[in-house]
Design brief:
- By secondary structure, the protein is of the alpha/beta class.
- The protein contains 13 helices and 8 strands.
- The strands form 2 sheets. The protein has a 4-stranded parallel beta sheet with strand order 2-1-3-4, sandwiched between helices. Strands 6-5-7-8 form a 4-stranded parallel beta sheet, sandwiched between helices.
- β7, α12 and β8 form a beta-alpha-beta unit.
- α8 runs parallel beside α13.
Amino acid sequence: MINKLVLAAIAGCALSAPAFADPVKVVAAENFYGDMASQIGGANVEVTSILSNPDDDPHLFEASPATARALSDAKVVIVNGVDYDPWMEKLLGANKAPGRREILVSALVGRKPGDNPHLWYDPAYMKAAAKTLVADLIAVDPSHKADYEQGGAKFLDSLKPLDDKISTMRKSYAGQPVTASEPVFGYQAKLIGLVVRNEKYALAIMNNAEPTPSEVAGFENDLKGKKVKAMLYNAQASEPAVGKLVQLAKDNSIPVVGVSETEPPNSTYQDWMLGQLNALDKALSGGA
């Protein structure tokens, strides 16, 4: 199953039309970083995203030899870190390549194992990754320096609507209580100023552990007592226990908003993030 997933991800990745005979090969552990690389590098890069299947749980992914082969010719590799994609870090450590540039996003932004691993939900972290990517692309392909600088500037500018949306929602909803089945949306929730309840439950679900009876009861009581304005859940995960909580929220007229860990097909990072924020905005405003 995993072999098929990796091969499909590699075979189905979008390849930029090369501006010259040998485009820079970039491998991203996850497709949102791959999308960022494609937007910045344009026709000068050939991007492979390993994790791109929206139906797969990234936390349960295991690498195969196909993943290692995808790395063999890479000049730039982008990894999330903080134990989100340890399979990629292990492969890089076992397959050294002189001159290969490796971007570990968690190290760029000062996050360590144990922190919320969903770093791409903070636009500031994506900006840090983008700036480093521009520098690394210039290092391996200096002849296209101007192209990469232009692509990087365009990408950073494209995040302004996302920053503006978060700022606007903060003015409206800071201090509002919500609950979440997993901490996928955690960084944006904090930027908006939301009070996220049942965090121990969410961590247990993320780590594929069993929440305690008291944690389950606390979550259920928040929904039954209408103590939260909305419920966020990981739309890529399918735990029956979470499904029951989603139904309980609906039964108690609590708006439910699905968020995902993998960028949806035929989307962009920017549209993906804004779409989820718009859905949450609608839920919190009473329009859901």
